Amino acid sequence: QVQLVESGGGLVEPGGSLRLSCAASGSIFSVHAMGWYRQAPGNQRELVAIIRSGGVTNLADSVKGRFTISGDNAKNTVYLQMNSLKPEDTAVYYCNFVTNWGPHWGQGTQVTVSS
Description:
Helix content is 0%, strand content 58%. The protein is built from no helices and eleven strands. β7 (67-72) and β8 form a beta hairpin.
């Protein structure tokens, strides 16, 4: 069984920064991808950023230039550095790991951008 634990969400003013972390634990033999998704009220869950095996990263157009995804393979941890936050970034953020067992989701962490 694989468990994901997220941290780092909260309330921040527009223009501010937050850093999300997600650590995976359990019987993991290989990680094929680590990523972050978000879901705002009334919207579908959408991909924010992803790191695939080999280190290739992809970011949603809406966050390019503001968000950075990074990972620590030794710790099975993925980070999302979010800068220049906007009110439209407000959502529940979910981490996702794709391992040898398949996809796994974190419990979600709320990010609210408001003055």
